């Protein structure tokens, strides 16, 4: 299991990709926020701007990882 997680976050050269780690942390933060908001009142919800910032960060890191995987670095 440990090797699977290590390979999941590894880049082409086998080192840990910071884009994949940040994308995963952002995804977990968004899921946690959605779950917490479904059980709480609207007046204690985080600011929409903060949620949007985490959403854009997550999308850009995942998109960067996809571009890195399919780009030709001859």
List the topology elements.
Layout: H1 2-9, H2 18-38, H3 48-70
Helix pairs in contact: 2-3
Features:
74 residues; mainly alpha
Question: Which stretches are low in confidence, meaning pLDDT under 50 for 5 or more residues running?
Answer: none
Shape: elongated
Helix content: over 70%
Mean pLDDT rating = 83
Rg is 16 Å
State the end-to-end distance: 33 Å
**How many domains in all?**
1
User: What string, H for helix and E for strand, traces the elements in order?
Assistant: HHH
Please work out how many helical segments DSSP would assign: 3
**Beta-strand share of residues:** under 5%
Sketch the major β-sheet: none
Given helix and strand content, the structural type is mainly alpha
Number of strands: 0
Walk me through this protein's architecture.
With 74 residues, the protein is mainly alpha-helical. The chain has one domain. Helices cover 70% and strands 0% of the residues. It has three helices and no strands. The longest helix has 23 residues. The N and C termini lie far apart (33 Å). The model has no long low-confidence stretch (mean pLDDT 83).
